[in-house]
Amino acid sequence: MSAYAITLGHHRYRFDDLRAVMACASPRRSGDELAGLAAESAEQRMAARMVLADLPLSVFLAEPLIPYETDEVTRLILDSHDAAAFAPVAFMTVGGFRDWLLSYDADTEALSRLAPGLTPEMVAAVSKLMRNQDLVTVAAKTQVVTAFRSTVGLKGRLSSRLQPNHPTDDPTGIAASTLDGLLFGMGDAVIGINPATDSVSACITLLELLDSVRRKFDIPTQSCVLTHVTNTIQAIERGAPVDLVFQSIAGTEAANAGFGVTLAVLKEAREAALALKRGTVGDNVMYFETGQGSALSAGAHHGVDQQTVEVRAYAVARAFKPLLVNTVVGFIGPEYLCDSKQIIRAGLEDNFCGKLLGLPMGVDVCYTNHAEADQDDMDVLMILLGNAGVNFLIGVPGADDIMLNYQSLSYHDILGLRHLLKLKPAPEFEAWLERMGMLDDQGRVPPLDDHSRPMTRLLGAS
């Protein structure tokens, strides 16, 4: 008889294995339905959650969802598990763990100590038992601080990635978008470009452009060209001014192979970037992006639901001590998150799970034009994430990325959120804005047409 079974009313619900329990316990999403993993009814979903709530957390150490022998991500998760950090919650069930996370005892210090003892599957499991408010509440108590030239993740701060993409990588267009973002106080997490080509030479040109802007205005931030990790290694070998190494990652070995990456390659890249010693206040040199549905689209999910596979990617990120990790929550498309309800839920899950595992989480609050979502929905997710203590958000000119052809947040959206929630940028960047005459007497970035605002050196020198 299946250990994963429960009777509700006159119906007996049975689940074949732990993977089935996890998948059926997930909130509804189109990706799991596409994969044939989703609960067939609300009643079955609730039955799975009740089974899951009564399971001990330790079951995820004893029963890997993807076999240890065939998957290097599973081996990383289990081999790096910190039993001493796990000990305070080792006796708990998944439901008991949820209750503890919402208690006063689970404060910032306790959550920080616990992070190395949690596996992605434990964290994904408990998230499936939580309402959106629970996800916000616990994430807000969790603090993860990283640094390179600026310090990201401090309490009372909200950082931003300035994303000046251009469909032809035109330096003038990128420079204009970068200046636009800086005038809104954006870019303290990173100034990061998604290149239009995979050319290493073009990548180096963009790196040199960003570095020249940073040095000219003495901006305490870091730059990144989001090319493939092997291109960045080549750029380093050719003397390019590389601050952060970027790579998209996923939660299974096979899905990462689809991205053309292994753990060994990531280790090589991190060591190459560290050897440059370009950081001034820290040495977190990696930048990772993830997204629910990437493993399924690669046919590499091993029958595991998309949210759990997503959280497994965070174990990969955690191993390399990144400065930044962000989920591009609505970017892959409605095949995986079909509408605003699913996108909002996924963004809150990803932020919660990443922070609980000890990652500096950011979110690209975004959607594609064929999803059932609009900018009002993105406002809702943005405000929820601001209250949930997200480390950084991504902004593009006018909320419309003209190279990747999707909708994100604008620079002024993030600035407005900072003002609404009384959040500040990274301290080093805030001090730079003040030196440049770009803050008013209340520490806010005022409108450009405010005649009381002094002419900034940034505009004068541009």
From TrEMBL:
Listed name of the protein: Ethanolamine ammonia-lyase large subunit
Main function: Catalyzes the deamination of various vicinal amino-alcohols to oxo compounds. Allows this organism to utilize ethanolamine as the sole source of nitrogen and carbon in the presence of vitamin B12.
Co-factor remark: Binds between the large and small subunits.
Taxonomy of the source species: Bacteria, Pseudomonadati, Pseudomonadota, Hydrogenophilia, Hydrogenophilales
Localisation: Bacterial microcompartment
HAMAP family: EutB
Keywords: Bacterial microcompartment, Cobalamin, Cobalt, Lyase
GO MF assignments: cobalamin binding; ethanolamine ammonia-lyase activity
